[in-house]
Design brief:
254 residues, alpha+beta, Fructose-1,6-Bisphosphatase, Chain A, domain 1, D-Maltodextrin-Binding Protein, domain 2, 2 domains, 5-stranded mixed beta sheet
């Protein structure tokens, strides 16, 4: 069943990617949510509605947690899908790149399937737990970044003014603010960056990426080194693993 689900969701995500591309061609309807930079488009809503309809039609006992939905889930029992129909909506609207579609499946709390689709590049990152992570059909290598002083890190804009993270930025080779969590995760799982730091991510922003990083031998925890709670908005440090303890020690030391 898992392999069948995997193939079905890969096909659905590619269809959703075509919806995103067509939305850019036809013109978007853009609204704001919590701030002028927190955007939602008609395509965000359409993709999520499409996914919900698909899952409930074929798997009516499954549960769904999505960014553009008011459903609240209090338990990870059973099959729980977590979706961000357009991650990095501001980038989607303004840059037309550096955004993604993310989907993950947890079964009784265990990460089982994960997908990040870089639509602009047609790169679909996907995994079945225990079988490695792929970009399209190419299997990614286990993570090995080296030392913090030799690595680039991605950081959320909200973390830039926090002293402990400023100390980390000083020790890193360089720092990037991408404005899209899935794009930051992509750069870590492909070995381009050594870490991604964010002050507060909801589950749909980290569920797929965290699963992939762990599958590749990296780590994704709260800044204190404790496990993530998939149902809570939380600060995270995601890294190649080789520098993770150094990052955690710096946070604990402040």
């Amino acid at each position: 069943m898992i392999e069948q689900l995997h193939q079905e969701i890969k096909a659905w995500i590619k269809q959703a990617g075509e919806m995103a591309k067509k939305g850019l061609e036809d013109g978007l309807t853009v609204d704001t949510k919590t701030s002028a930079s927190d955007l939602v488009t008609n395509i965000d809503k359409a993709i999520q509605e499409s996914f919900i309809a698909y899952i409930y039609k074929h798997y009516p006992t499954h549960h769904i947690l999505g960014e553009e939905d008011d459903t609240h889930i209090t338990s990870m029992n059973g099959y729980v899908w977590i979706i961000d129909p357009i991650d990095g909506t501001l980038n989607y609207v303004k840059e037309k790149e550096n955004y993604g579609i993310t989907v993950s499946l947890y079964i009784n709390g265990q990460g089982t399937l994960a997908y990040i689709y870089d639509v602009a590049k047609s790169h679909l990152y996907h995994m079945i737990a225990g079988q490695g992570v792929y970009c399209n059909e190419e299997k990614l290598q286990p993570l090995d970044c080296g030392l913090l002083k030799d690595t680039v890190i991605s950081i959320s804009s909200s973390a830039l003014d926090i002293p402990v993270y400023q100390e980390i930025m000083k020790k890193a080779l360089s720092v990037r603010v991408i404005g899209c969590s899935s794009q930051s995760f992509i750069r870590v799982i492909t070995g381009k960056y050594g870490a991604y730091i964010s002050c507060a991510l909801p589950s749909w922003d980290f569920a797929a990426g965290a699963m992939m990083i762990k599958e590749l031998g990296g780590k994704c925890t709260q800044p204190a080194g404790t496990d993530l709670n998939i149902l809570q908005k939380t600060p995270i440090i995601a890294s190649s693993g080789t520098i993770h303890q150094e990052l955690i020690n710096m946070v604990k030391g402040c």
